[in-house]
C-alpha cells in the first residue's frame, strides 16, 4: 500500500514508530495531489507552505497528550473559515474572501496536531448534491471521472477517496457529508446537531448544519470526532455535554443490537443494486448477532418538502449579509438598491438564487403559516417518528442514497430530481440525529454504495460501534479507485512504497 | 353641533442598555471612539460567526419588566427581522417577535390634575440589537458605515394605546425614563439617542370605542418634541377629518426645523420583515429563583418613594414628586435628612439654591460639588443663629463654588452674625442720631418708617446683624427716648 492510501490510523502508526516524519507524509500526499488532482479537481485552494509549517510544528510538538492527530494531513471543506486563507464557499461572492478568524473545528483539529493540505470544493454555499453548483468547477468521482462525487462536500469526499488527504472535514445540512461519502466509497459521519461547534462554518441553514469527518475508516472518523466535538462558548447551540472517547466504541460487538429497518425507506422503484447491497449489510449485521426489526417512520414522505422550506427560509436570511457592503464581491450600481441587486445578481449562482427566492417566499407575510409554520410542524412529527422507532430499535439502517453516483450533467437540469438524491438523509437533519455512511458494496459497474446508520441523539457511540463491527467484517473499505496518474509517475514524485 | 375628537396614542420606546459589552459579542459599548474600532467578526456579520447572548442584557430586561409590573415569560426566544440596509451587517436584526421577555405590565403616570395618577398599560418589553450608523460626509461619492453601535443591546417597550394627550405621552416618557434610571439599566439620554421614541397616534369621535386609522411618528428626540409632534399631528388629523378627508395609514417624520410632520412611507411601502425564530440562539427559560433574585435587587421606585416622602417627611405632593423624579436627587435629600437636616428646609434648599446652581452649570446632581453634609452644616449654623438666612445664601454659594466648609467661608469673609446688644445698640444709636427727621416722623406715628430703620441697620452691619435683635433694639430705642 502506498502512504497516500493510508488513513489516520495507518499514518499515525508509522509516525509513532518513526518510520516516517510528518514532512515525508506531506511529501507523499502532495505528490499524490500532483498526480491526480488535475483529473479529480477536489481542491479550490492548496496550502502547501502552510502545511509544511504545520507539519514542522507538529514534528516539534510530538504526538503526546492531546496531539492525537499530530502530522495527519487533512482537507478542509471550503465553507469552514480559516484565518489568513481564502474561504470561498465555491462562490463568486466570496472568491477572494479571507476570514479574519478561525473556525472552532479547524482550531481544534490543528490543536490536535492536524495539518491542512487545502480547502476543498463544494456546491456553492453547500447547496447541492453533486458539486456541479460550484462557481469554479465540478469535482469528479475518483471511481469514474465521468460522474459526480456527490455533494455538497464532494471535494472532501473525492479527496479522501483519491488519496489526496488522509481525512477531511465536511458539513452536512441534508446529507452533504453522508451522500458524497457513499458515492465516493468512504466513511462520512454527521454528528448529532449540537455535538460539534458551528462557529466558523459559513451558514447555509443554521438549525440543520453540522460539521463532521469524512474518512477512510470508521475508527478514523471516531478519532476526528474526538478532536472536534464538545461544547464551544462561541456557539450557543453546541451542547454542554461531556465528550466520550468515541474510539472505544470501535471494537464492541453488536450482539443483541436491534437494527431498525424503516418500511418507508425500502420502496418500489428503488435502485435494485442499492437495495441488495443494503439488505446484504443488514443480513451481515444479523449474522454477527444483531436483531433486525421493522420500524415505521410514517412522515418520511413529507421530509423533502419540509426540508426545502425550512432550509431555504434560513438560507434566505443567512445569505442576506452578502450585499457588497462589507466584504466579498461588489458590483458597482448606480445607487444603493442597484448595488444590492447587481451584487447579488452577479455574485450568486442559479441554485443559490433559486433557494433564496424559495425561502423568501416561504417567510413572506401571508404565507408564513402555510409554509414555514407547517414545515415546522412536519419537523416535529418526523422527530416523533424517530423517537417511536428508537423505542424498539437501537439503531436504524437505510441506504444513504437511492442511487450510486450519477453522470455529470445528468440531473443538473432538473432541480427536483437532484433534491430527491437526499431523500434518505434529509430526515436525519430535520430530527437532529447522528448518522453515518459506510461502504456496503459496489454496483456492477464498480460504483460504491453506502449504508446509512442512524442513532439516537448524542449516541454517536452506538453508530461507531455498529459501523465499525460491520466494516471490519467486510472488505469494501479496503478497495481503492484505480486512478490513472496525470504524470504517470505517482511513484517517481517521492511517495514511499511500503 | 360639532363633533369632538379624542386622541389615542401608544408609544414604542427604545432604551439602550447600560451593559459594558454588546448583546451578542464581547465588544465594548463605549461610544465616541474611532469608527469600527469596537467591532469583531460577530458584530460585523462575518460569514460563519455566531451570536452568544450577553446574560446581563437579559437580566436588565427582566429587571425592567419587573419594575414595570410585567409578567416574565417562562419561555422566550429571539427572532430575525430581515431587511437590507448598510448599517445592518447581517441583513437581519436579531430581535424578538412572538415570544418577548416581558408582557402585560403597567406604569402610573401623573396626569397633572391635582396629582391624580392614571395607569398606562405596557403590552410588551423585548430585547434586540441596535444597528450601526451610516455616515454621509465628505465630497467623495461614498457613504461610510460605522459599526461601533451595531450590537448594542436595546430594549423595546411597547405601551397599550392608553395615552389620551401629548401631555400624557410626555408624562409617560418621563416616568419610563425615571424608572429606567432608578434601576440603572439605561441613562435615559434622549438627545444622544440612548432613549428613543416612536408614537402611534389616531383620533376618533368622543365616545367611540373603535380605533381610528393610526399614523406612526418617528424622529422625536426630546420630551418637548414628543409633545410638539403629537400636538401637530392631532391638529393635522382633526382638520383632515373635519374636511372629510381620510387618514392614511403611514409613517411620518417629525421635522424640528419646520415644526411639522411629513410622510415617509405608506402602508403599502412598509417592509415585510419576514420574522422567523432565530436558529443560532437557543430559547431561554429564566429560572424562577433567578427572577426572584433580580426582583430583590430592585430599589424603591419613584412612586413608592414619593408616597413615603410625603408620609415620613411631611413634604408636599409637589416637592415629593420633584425630589423623587431622579434617584440621585432623592438620595441626596434623604442623606441630608439622615445627617440631621429638617426635611422641609432641606427640600427648599435643594429645590431652590442647589438646583439653580446645578442648572446654571448644566450638571447633574451626581456631579454636584456640594455634598449633603455641607447643607446640613449650613442649616445648623442658621439654627444656632451664627448666620442669618440671607447670609446663608452667600455661604451656600461659596460652598458650592469653592468646596470649602461653611465655617471656613464665614470666617474668611467675616460673615458671623452680629448679635451683641452693645455692638448693635451703638449702631442703632448712630442711625437715630444721623436721621433726626425720620426719627421724629416715626415717633409722631408714621409706623411704616420702621422698615427704613431696619434697612439702615442691616446696611450698616453689611447684612450680618441679627434681624431679631435689630428689631428688638430699634423698638426699644425709638420708643424709649
Ligand atoms: Zn463585536
How would you sum up this structure, described in words?
Chain A has a domain at 3-258 and 405-478: Alpha-Beta Complex (Amidase signature (AS) enzymes). Chain A is built from 15 helices and eleven strands. The radius of gyration of chain A is 21 Å and the shape is globular. In chain A, a hairpin with a 5-residue loop joins strand 10 (435-442) and strand 11. In chain A, 61% of the residues are buried. By secondary structure, chain A is of the alpha/beta class. Chain B is an alpha+beta fold and 481 residues long. Chain B folds into three domains: 5-293, no CATH class; 300-413, no CATH class; 421-479, Arc Repressor Mutant, subunit A, CATH 1.10.10. Chain B has helices at 55-67, 166-182, 223-242, 288-296, 302-313, 317-323, 327-338, 343-361, 372-383, 389-402, 406-413, 421-434, 436-443, 450-460, 467-479, and strands spanning 5-16, 71-72, 79-82, 92-95, 102-110, 117-129, 133-135, 144-146, 153-159, 195-205, 215-218, 250-255, 260-266, 276-277. In chain B, strands 2-5-6-9-1-10-11-12-13 form a nine-stranded mixed sheet. In chain B, strand 12 and strand 13 form a beta hairpin. In chain B, helix 2 (166-182) runs antiparallel to helix 3. The N and C termini of chain B lie far apart (78 Å). The model of chain B has no long low-confidence stretch (mean pLDDT 89). The interface between A and B is large, with 44 and 28 residues. Zinc ion (ZN) binds at residues 22, 25, 27, 39-40, 42-43, 151 of chain B.
Amino acid at each position: 500500500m502506498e502512504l497516500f492510501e493510508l488513513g489516520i490510523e495507518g499514518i499515525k502508526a508509522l509516525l509513532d514508530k518513526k518510520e516516517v516524519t510528518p514532512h515525508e507524509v506531506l511529501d507523499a500526499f502532495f505528490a499524490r495531489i500532483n498526480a491526480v488532482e488535475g483529473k479529480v479537481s477536489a481542491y479550490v485552494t492548496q496550502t502547501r507552505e502552510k502545511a509544511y509549517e504545520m507539519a514542522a510544528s507538529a514534528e516539534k510538538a510530538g504526538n503526546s497528550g492531546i496531539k492525537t492527530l499530530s502530522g495527519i494531513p487533512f482537507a478542509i471543506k471550503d465553507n469552514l473559515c480559516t484565518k489568513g486563507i481564502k474561504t470561498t464557499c465555491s462562490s463568486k461572492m466570496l472568491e477572494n474572501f479571507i476570514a479574519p478568524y478561525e473556525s472552532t473545528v479547524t482550531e481544534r483539529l490543528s490543536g490536535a496536531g492536524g495539518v491542512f493540505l487545502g480547502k476543498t470544493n463544494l456546491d456553492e454555499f453547500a447547496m447541492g448534491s453533486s458539486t456541479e453548483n460550484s462557481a469554479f468547477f465540478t469535482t469528479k468521482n475518483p471511481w469514474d471521472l465521468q460522474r459526480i462525487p456527490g455533494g455538497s462536500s464532494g471535494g472532501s469526499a473525492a479527496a479522501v477517496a483519491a488519496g489526496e488527504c488522509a481525512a477531511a472535514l465536511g458539513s452536512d445540512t441534508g446529507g452533504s457529508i453522508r451522500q458524497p461519502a457513499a458515492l465516493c466509497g468512504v466513511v462520512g459521519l454527521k454528528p448529532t446537531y449540537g455535538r460539534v461547534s458551528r462557529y466558523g462554518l459559513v451558514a447555509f441553514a443554521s438549525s440543520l448544519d453540522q460539521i463532521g469527518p469524512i474518512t477512510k475508516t470508521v475508527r478514523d472518523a471516531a478519532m476526528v470526532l474526538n478532536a472536534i466535538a464538545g461544547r464551544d462558548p462561541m456557539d450557543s447551540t453546541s451542547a454542554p455535554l461531556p465528550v466520550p472517547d468515541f474510539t472505544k466504541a470501535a471494537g464492541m460487538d453488536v450482539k443483541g443490537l436491534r437494527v431498525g429497518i424503516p418500511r418507508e425507506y425500502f420502496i418500489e422503484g428503488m435502485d435494485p443494486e442499492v437495495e441488495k447491497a443494503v439488505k446484504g449489510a443488514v443480513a451481515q449485521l444479523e449474522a454477527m448477532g444483531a436483531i433486525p426489526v421493522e420500524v415505521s417512520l410514517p412522515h418520511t414522505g413529507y421530509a423533502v418538502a419540509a426540508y426545502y422550506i425550512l432550509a431555504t427560509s434560513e438560507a434566505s436570511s443567512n445569505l442576506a449579509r452578502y450585499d457588497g457592503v462589507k466584504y466579498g464581491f461588489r458590483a458597482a450600481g448606480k445607487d444603493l438598491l442597484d448595488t444590492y441587486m447587481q451584487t447579488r445578481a452577479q455574485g450568486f449562482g442559479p441554485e443559490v438564487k433559486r433557494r433564496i427566492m424559495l425561502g423568501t417566499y416561504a417567510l413572506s407575510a401571508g404565507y408564513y403559516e402555510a409554509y414555514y409554520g407547517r414545515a415546522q410542524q412536519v419537523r416535529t412529527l418526523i422527530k416523533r417518528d424517530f423517537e417511536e422507532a428508537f423505542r424498539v430499535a437501537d439503531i436504524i439502517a437505510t441506504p444513504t442514497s437511492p442511487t450510486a453516483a450519477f453522470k455529470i450533467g445528468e440531473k443538473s437540469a432538473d432541480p427536483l430530481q437532484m433534491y430527491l438524491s437526499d431523500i434518505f438523509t434529509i430526515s436525519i437533519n430535520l430530527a437532529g440525529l447522528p448518522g453515518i455512511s459506510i461502504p456496503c458494496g459496489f454496483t456492477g459497474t464498480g460504483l460504491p454504495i453506502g449504508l446509512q446508520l442512524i442513532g439516537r441523539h448524542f449516541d454517536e457511540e452506538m453508530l461507531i460501534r455498529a459501523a465499525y463491527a460491520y466494516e471490519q467484517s467486510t472488505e469494501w473499505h479496503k478497495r481503492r479507485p484505480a486512478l490513472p496518474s496525470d504524470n504517470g509517475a505517482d511513484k517517481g514524485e517521492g511517495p514511499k512504497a511500503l | 353641533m360639532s363633533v369632538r375628537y379624542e386622541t389615542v396614542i401608544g408609544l414604542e420606546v427604545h432604551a439602550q442598555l447600560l451593559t459594558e459589552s454588546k448583546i451578542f459579542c464581547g465588544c465594548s459599548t463605549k461610544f465616541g471612539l474611532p469608527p469600527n474600532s469596537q467591532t469583531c467578526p460577530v458584530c460585523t456579520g462575518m460569514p460563519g460567526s455566531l451570536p452568544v447572548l450577553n446574560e446581563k442584557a437579559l437580566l436588565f430586561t427582566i429587571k425592567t419588566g419587573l419594575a414595570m409590573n410585567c409578567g416574565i415569560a417562562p419561555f422566550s426566544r429571539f427572532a430575525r427581522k430581515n431587511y437590507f440596509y448598510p448599517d445592518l451587517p447581517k441583513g437581519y436584526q436579531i430581535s424578538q417577535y412572538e415570544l418577548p421577555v416581558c408582557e402585560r405590565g403597567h406604569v402610573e403616570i401623573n396626569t397633572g390634575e391635582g396629582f391624580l395618577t392614571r395607569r398606562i398599560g405596557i403590552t410588551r418589553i423585548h430585547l434586540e440589537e441596535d444597528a450601526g450608523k451610516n455616515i454621509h460626509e465628505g465630497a467623495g461619492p461614498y457613504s461610510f458605515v460605522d459599526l461601533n453601535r451595531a450590537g448594542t443591546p436595546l430594549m423595546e417597550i411597547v405601551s397599550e394605546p392608553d395615552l389620551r394627550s401629548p401631555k400624557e405621552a410626555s408624562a409617560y416618557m418621563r416616568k419610563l425614563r425615571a424608572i429606567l434610571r432608578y434601576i440603572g439599566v439605561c441613562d435615559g439620554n434622549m438627545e444622544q439617542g440612548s432613549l428613543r421614541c416612536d408614537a402611534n397616534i389616531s383620533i376618533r369621535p368622543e365616545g367611540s370605542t373603535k380605533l381610528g386609522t393610526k399614523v406612526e411618528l418617528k424622529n422625536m428626540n426630546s420630551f418637548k418634541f414628543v409633545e410638539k409632534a403629537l400636538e401637530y399631528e392631532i391638529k393635522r388629523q382633526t382638520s383632515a377629518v373635519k374636511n372629510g378627508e381620510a387618514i392614511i395609514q403611514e409613517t411620518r417624520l417629525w421635522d424640528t426645523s419646520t415644526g411639522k410632520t411629513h410622510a415617509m412611507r405608506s402602508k403599502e411601502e412598509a417592509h415585510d420583515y419576514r420574522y422567523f425564530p432565530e436558529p443560532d440562539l437557543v430559547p431561554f427559560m429564566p429560572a424562577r429563583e433567578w427572577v426572584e433574585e433580580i426582583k430583590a435587587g430592585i430599589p424603591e421606585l419613584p412612586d413608592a418613594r414619593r408616597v413615603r416622602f410625603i408620609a415620613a417627611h411631611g413634604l408636599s405632593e409637589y416637592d415629593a414628586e420633584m425630589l423623587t423624579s431622579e434617584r440621585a436627587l432623592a438620595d441626596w435629600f434623604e442623606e441630608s435628612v439622615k445627617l440631621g437636616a429638617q426635611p422641609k428646609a432641606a427640600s427648599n434648599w435643594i429645590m431652590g439654591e442647589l438646583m439653580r446652581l446645578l442648572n446654571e452649570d448644566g450638571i447633574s446632581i451626581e456631579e454636584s460639588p456640594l455634598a449633603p453634609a455641607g447643607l446640613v452644616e449650613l442649616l445648623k449654623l442658621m439654627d444656632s443663629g451664627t448666620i442669618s438666612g440671607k447670609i446663608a445664601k452667600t455661604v451656600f454659594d461659596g460652598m458650592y463654588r469653592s468646596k470649602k466648609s461653611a465655617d471656613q467661608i464665614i470666617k474668611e469673609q467675616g460673615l458671623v452674625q452680629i448679635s451683641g446688644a452693645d455692638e448693635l445698640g451703638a449702631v442703632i444709636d448712630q442711625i437715630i442720631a444721623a436721621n433726626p427727621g425720620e426719627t421724629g416722623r416715626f415717633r409722631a406715628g408714621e409706623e411704616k418708617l420702621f422698615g427704613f430703620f431696619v434697612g439702615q441697620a442691616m446696611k450698616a452691619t453689611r447684612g450680618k446683624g441679627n434681624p431679631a435683635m435689630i428689631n428688638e433694639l430699634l423698638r426699644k430705642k425709638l420708643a424709649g427716648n
